[in-house]
Specification:
mainly beta, 130 residues, globular, 3-stranded antiparallel sheet, two-stranded antiparallel sheet
Length: 130
């Protein structure tokens, strides 16, 4: 058995992390940012809760108006009949970069005005150009 086959077999035996239902990110202006976020940080996934409704939301960068700050991942209960969109950046034709924050959306793609319930992490500041 090759090394790749062993790695796949071992990974298949591990627990599955419940993830939120995801969907498309509709066209949304977002927030103008001067530079993209740094590389993602590594989050430790704490024990899977016994509550079967909980899903894991990965840690992510968020823009606070002057700098990027890291929010740790966490377990959360998804809103009914909603899907989750990860944060993203989009560059316009004129070169300007926009940040679209993560969030929960209705089936029609409109944003639910809910906090993500993520715990802010202590992390190095990411101000200034990368």
């Amino acid at each position: 058995m090759g090394i790749c086959a062993i790695a796949v077999a071992v990974a298949a035996c591990g627990p599955t992390i419940p993830a939120p239902k995801t969907g498309p990110i509709p066209k949304e202006e977002g927030v103008l940012v001067p530079f993209p976020p740094p590389a993602a940080q590594i989050d430790d996934i704490v024990a899977i809760p016994e509550d079967p409704t909980k899903v894991w939301i990965d840690g992510q960068w968020t823009w606070n108006g002057t700098e990027w700050s890291w929010q740790r991942g966490s377990w959360t209960t998804p809103p009914a009949d909603a899907y989750y969109t990860h944060w993203t950046t989009r560059r316009r034709e004129d070169g300007e970069l926009y940040f679209i924050r993560a969030g929960w959306r209705r089936a029609d793609g409109s944003r639910l005005d809910l906090d993500l319930d993520l715990t802010p992490a202590c992390s190095p500041k990411a101000s200034g150009a990368p």
